[in-house]
Amino acid sequence: MAARRIGLQGGTFDPVHLGHMKAAAEVRRRFRLDKVLLIPSAVPPHKESGGTAPAEHRLRMVKLACRGRAGLEASSLEIEAGGTSYSVLTLEAVRRRHRGAVLFFLLGIDAFQDIRTWRESRRVLEQCHFVVTSRPGYDLGQARRALGSVSAARFVDLEPGGPAVGRLPRAPAIFLLPIPALNISSTDIRRRARRGGSLAGLVPGPVANYIHRHRLYEGGQ
Ligand code: ATP
Ligand code: MG
After folding, report:
1. Which parts of the chain sit beneath pLDDT 70?
2. CATH number for 73
3. Most buried residue among 17, 65, 130, 136 by CB atoms closer than 10 A?
């Protein structure tokens, strides 16, 4: 039996939106992943924690967003661990839970650009495949520059909308995957929610209801 393939998508998810869901679904299709874990961070290391919605709300919204979407699953791993979330530790935890699985780390080019600031970034990059997706306003080509001269050979360019990737390289690769751009960000959603604007088409319906019901983002940033 082929090894299970599992994707990890980290983020603040403050709140989760359709850009996240679409990227996760497309990567799942292209790499035939058994599932993608969406893992909200406890205290985001690269963001000011002050204005972030409480972890339980962010996790519950991810759970609502995953409901009815095959192969997408919310994970409380980082929130349960508490403290600052580091990808290097998250990867190790997922590997322990899913022994023998092939792991794929999913992230947008905006997040990948900062990868050298991550704790033990070299080690993280050597531990699993990476799939870097495009994002409006960012150039996917910047991914190579983000790593400098390190591991240029590991980059694999993929065509947008292509077929599933068959054979995987033995060594961990960094796949660059252009995806249909969804110009959505949590920052914009928080801004809209604060003004009482509609979130239709930006977040799944149940997430919009949740934001309104709990009056998230109304007072803050
Ligand atoms: P914020 O505006 O608060 O930074 P965000 O929309 O960027 O929120 P994050 O939680 O920071 O969302 O992102 C988590 C992951 O999802 C990152 O890897 C990011 O690149 C990716 N991502 C976010 N929005 C999109 C989108 N519209 N399309 C594809 N990937 C996205
Ligand atoms: Mg972001």
Report:
1. 1, 44-50, 149-152, 220-221
2. 3.40.50.620
3. 65
Whether 20 is in the pocket of ligand 1, judged by its Cβ within 6 Å, is yes
Query: What's phi and psi for 16, nearest 5 deg?
Result: -65, 145
Q: Is the pTM of this model over 0.90?
A: yes
Is 31 touching ligand 1 by the criterion CB < 6 Å? no
Residue 212 inside a domain? The answer is no
Q: Could you tell me if the CB of 35 is within 6 A of ligand 1? A: no
Q: Give a yes or no: residue 196 inside a domain.
A: no
Which strands, in side-by-side order, build the sheet including 129-133?
72-74, 35-40, 5-11, 102-108, 129-133, 174-177, 155-157
Residue 220 lies in a domain: no
Ligand 1 atom closest to the Cα of residue 18 is: 27
**Is 208 within the bounds of a domain?**
no
Specify the pLDDT at position 148: 76
Task: State the total domains in the chain.
Answer: 1
Phi and psi of 21, rounded to 5°?
A: -65, -40
